[in-house]
């Protein structure tokens, strides 16, 4: 027996037990080696006129013997001599494929597509095999040789038999391992069932999953069923009989759809590939296919689904694109190729330039992955913008399915992604009664409006009737009605929206008149980027009141200071203060409303209370303000009660108005019994 070269036992043990995390990739590695062998022969035949190879006959064959517990991967490639078996298989981490690429670097082009790099893929066979036998006959040689090893100490090389050039790799599978007992009371460690690889279905599945786009046919004898011929003497009650038979079938597709020119592929073909590959029954909403050149060369085929998968927002959902290198799948879902807010996108990226690690399961250089991911992100954003502008109905359907993720993208990035994602958002316009973008909202604003107004809640119809909303609408300003729990958090992360190319606002009348004259004389109107604050109509001072309304509010505040103090005392720490409202200014409007001071609104407080940390001590609370409509008849009742010294009655009024305002906000009174008592007492 010959010993492995290098620190064989330790290195081989590392190859078998440490480098690879998934035993089933052994077939991918052996098929990749076979493809390289066929590619070498094909390339040599193109550069050497003395070699005569029929390219139509080049193929890879996979077979298994359940009784002998063997799996065989065969090719009719260039084969190996005894010396090459010694050099390539006896020296761990010596890559014959890499050496071949280096020797023929100046001649290579599309004619050769070598996969191997590290010279360790072959040894992955020992993850599942207790013995590996390689029988190979080099092209142009009359003799074959057999390399055999148990993957422990060494190997043997002896004469072998093979009818033609090429290589057979024969794996004798390990014995099944039973479950291993652990500590008492703990579940046993699962065993290993190697028999699962002795299955036609399993081998076909592994070929399709990992090697479906290897450029040469991968063939297997598969079992099929056919109806037997009807006997001539069969009676009328004859029932058809069926028989099984074996047929050689090509398992892989060979030519990946993403390598084809998009002009040569119909949308129906893309749809069929998407549905069969990603197990969806609906056509994709959009298909994005492109080829990138430069420092990194790669092909990408991306799909925006037509519907959201049922588990999209669950913790078990896995994002990512399938990553291929030289048509061999490296990772089924490479999460680093997609940002979280585009986690719904499915597709494939194929590049020969990415630097794979030794197991070919991940990448060595993250910067390469990041460069591809940035390009993909821009492509997706561009496609969504085109859908928004060219097919609004389709985009609104898309946004209904996936809009929450875009909003989370802004929130989770603390607003850093607002510029990229902000223009993709849609919100319901209370004024227009339809979904609008922030840009469309800004374009429709009346002159002088300096902010974008929104209201947050769980029901659009209820929001539209809230006093804080109707008050803003009455002044001619639109309000965005936000009904998803992430909406307000998104707006707070954004802080402002930059409306591009808006008509310029002039500070004084003279400048305005000069600009109007210039436009009348044929000049283009001046445009500017306007920074619009995002304001919740239920928080802070909106500064919408006219000078007369502000003056009336100030006078009412001074005149009825004692009333407000008494109501604040009656309400206690439920409110920060009681004040005259500048939002509610008409007799027909609500008598009171609840607003908040500070960054936390009532809706955000409701969302936090529904979250997993609701029971945590110190959960922030809103700073509530009870605003009174000084022009409402109820206000006069309050004034009369205060002047008459009816402290108890005033307290009931204050509690009733506060609870009523909460109900309008969709919040139950803190003490429903007290609310009912106050209603009855004042009837």
Automatic annotation (TrEMBL):
Residues 607-683 are annotated as: C. Keywords: ATP-binding, Chaperone, Cytoplasm, Nucleotide-binding, Stress response. Residues 22-177 form the Histidine kinase/HSP90-like ATPase domain. Its main location: cytoplasm. It comes from the Bacteria. One of its GO terms (molecular function) is ATP-dependent protein folding chaperone. One of its GO terms (cellular component) is cytoplasm. Residues 1-360 are annotated as: A. It is found in: Cytoplasm. The keyword Chaperone applies. SMART domains: HATPase_c. Homodimer. Molecular chaperone. Has ATPase activity. This is Chaperone protein HtpG.
């Amino acid at each position: 027996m010959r010993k492995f070269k290098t620190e064989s036992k330790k290195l081989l043990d590392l190859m078998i037990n440490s480098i690879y995390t998934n035993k089933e990739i052994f077939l991918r590695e052996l098929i990749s080696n076979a493809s390289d062998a066929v590619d070498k022969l094909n390339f040599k035949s193109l550069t050497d006129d003395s070699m005569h190879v029929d390219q139509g006959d080049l193929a890879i064959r996979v077979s298994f013997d359940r009784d002998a517990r063997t799996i065989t991967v065969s090719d009719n490639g260039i084969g190996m001599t005894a010396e090459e078996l010694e050099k390539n298989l006896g020296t761990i981490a010596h890559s014959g494929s890499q050496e071949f690429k280096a020797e023929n670097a100046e001649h290579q082009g599309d004619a050769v597509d070598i996969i191997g790099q590290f010279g360790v893929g072959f040894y992955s066979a020992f993850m599942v095999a207790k013995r590996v036998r390689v029988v190979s006959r080099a092209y142009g040689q009359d003799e074959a040789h057999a390399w055999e090893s148990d993957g422990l100490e060494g190997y043997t090389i002896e004469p072998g038999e093979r009818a033609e050039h090429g290589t057979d790799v024969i794996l004798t599978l390990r014995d099944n391992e039973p479950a291993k007992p652990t500590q008492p009371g703990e579940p046993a460690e699962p065993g290993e069932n190697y028999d699962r690889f002795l299955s036609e279905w399993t081998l076909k599945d592994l070929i399709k999953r990992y090697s479906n786009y290897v450029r040469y046919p991968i063939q297997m004898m598969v079992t099929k069923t056919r109806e037997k011929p009807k006997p001539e003497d069969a009676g009328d009650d004859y029932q058809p009989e069926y028989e099984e038979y074996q047929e050689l079938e090509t398992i892989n597709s060979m030519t990946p759809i993403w390598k084809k020119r998009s002009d040569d592929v119909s949308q129906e073909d893309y749809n069929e590939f998407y549905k069969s590959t990603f197990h969806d029954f609906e056509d994709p909403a959009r298909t994005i296919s492109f080829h990138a050149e430069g420092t990194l060369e790669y092909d990408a085929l991306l799909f925006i689904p037509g519907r959201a998968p049922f588990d999209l927002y669950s913790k078990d959902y896995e994002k990512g694109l399938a990553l291929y290198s030289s048509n061999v799948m490296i990772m089924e879902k490479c999460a680093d190729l997609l940002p979280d807010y585009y986690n719904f996108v499915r597709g494939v990226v194929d590049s020969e330039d990415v630097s794979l690690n030794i197991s070919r399961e991940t990448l060595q250089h993250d910067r390469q992955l990041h460069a591809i991911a940035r390009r993909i992100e821009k492509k997706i954003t561009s496609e969504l913008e085109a859908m928004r502008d060219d097919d609004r109905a389709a985009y609104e359907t898309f946004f209904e399915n996936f809009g929450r993720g875009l909003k989370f993208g802004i929130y989770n990035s603390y607003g850093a992604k607002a510029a990229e994602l902000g223009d993709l958002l849609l919100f319901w316009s209370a004024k227009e009664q339809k979904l609008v973008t922030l840009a469309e909202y800004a374009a429709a604003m009346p002159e002088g409006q300096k902010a974008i107004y929104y209201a947050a809640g769980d029901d659009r119809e209820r929001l539209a009737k809230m006093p804080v909303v109707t008050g803003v609408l009455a002044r001619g300003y639109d309000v965005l009605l936000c009904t998803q729990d992430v909406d307000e958090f998104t707006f707070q992360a954004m802080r402002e929206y930059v409306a591009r190319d808006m008509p310029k606002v002039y500070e004084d009348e003279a400048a305005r008149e000069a600009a109007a004259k210039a436009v009348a004389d044929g000049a283009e109107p001046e445009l500017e980027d306007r920074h619009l604050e995002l304001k919740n109509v239920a928080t802070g001072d909106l500064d919408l009141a006219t000078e007369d309304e502000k003056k009336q509010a100030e006078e009412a505040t001074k005149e009825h200071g004692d009333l407000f103090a008494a109501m604040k005392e009656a309400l206690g720490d439920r409110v920060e203060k009681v004040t005259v409202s500048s939002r509610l200014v008409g007799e027909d409007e609500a008598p009171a409303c609840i607003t908040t001071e500070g960054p936390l609104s009532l809706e955000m407080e409701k969302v936090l209370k529904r979250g997993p940390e609701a029971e945590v001590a110190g959960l922030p609370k809103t700073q509530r303000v009870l605003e009174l409509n000084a022009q409402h008849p109820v206000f006069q009742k309050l004034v009369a009660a205060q002047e008459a010294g009816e402290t108890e009655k005033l307290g009931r009024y204050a509690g009733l108005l506060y609870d009523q305002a909460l109900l309008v906000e969709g919040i139950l009174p803190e003490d429903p019994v007290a609310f009912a008592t106050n209603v009855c007492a004042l009837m």
